[in-house]
Amino acid sequence: MFRRKMQSVLVLSLRKQSDFIPTDRWDAVPKAEVERFIIDCMTKVGTKRTHAVSLASNLMTADYRGHYSHGMNRLDLYVNDIRTGITVSKDEPSIEKETVSTAMVCGNNVLGPVVGNFCMKLAIKKAKETGVGWVVANSSNHYGIAGYYSMLASDEGLLGMSFTNTSPLVVPTRAKEAVLGTNPISLAAPGKKGDSFVLDMATSTCALGKIELHDRKNIRIPLGWGVDSQGKMSDEPKPVLNGGGLMPLGGAEETSGYKGYGLAMMVEIFCGILGNAAYGPNIRKWKTTDRVANLGQCFIAVDPEAFGPGFSDRLDDLMNSCRRLENADDEEEVLVAGDPERQHMSMCDIRGGIPYHQRQIEYADELAEKLGVKPMKKC
User: Which region is the signal sequence (predicted)?
Assistant: First the structure.
């Protein structure tokens, strides 16, 4: 019975993941052990412990929710940024100016999750006092999953929104050069008994990692994922990776890719433009450390009680109305944003930890040996 239940939840949890995620060999690691390992790695290279704790919580949560591209998979990026000194850990974010409902924050080039936590907690405080809190930051860095911060607000009974700009990877509609980031959007709305709506999405058709994975497997990509250096759609990954770029959410202009382009611009306005940070093509290239990232980020908290009464009741009714819809032929049940992540978390809880593919475990072991820290202990 246990095995059947675990396999059933695993199938559900992998629904939205890449076809390349293996189900044959994956070892579970307790959540606390994942955090311990990340903290040890980061403090070993000079990260302040409080900063390492913030990062560890964010990366562990990403993996726990099934967003493996932004969890342990990104640890080397943060380690390298601290080691090279391109990101610092001696400072703290600071408020440059504020009103009762808004604030402009300088991240002082510390780790993105440290900036994100500071800003969203400030937005939450303002929302509880005035109904709305809107905080924008500059001089920040990669902050993990956007949903982590929006959920900080929803856990307090507030609507939470989180946005960040990123290195330029996306080619605007009708163009042939990448000048916008994947610029994610997240909204978390508090539901009844923890059943919250949690949207966490990029404004590109797919993540860069999916293109890289297809390239390593020597497999074609679907048309609409990326373009070559001339702005032409390609089903070959190499032209996309070598001089091309990702397409906006929606793909080609004929399939409304201009809408994803517009959403990416909206995020850029909220973050880089409003925050006086680097923006668009001015942001450093992905995985380069020739200069500081100076990312712009935006955090919003809203008290639903400042508006119509019965917010959570109506949200619960809407979500369950969608879930109860008859599914199309050969399709599984209708879900709402946040459901796939809840299914993945249930699978992790059944396993007693977060499952990682053997290659990820090997990478972590290699990093542990390189840094001289204790390897992760599996369940």
Answer: none
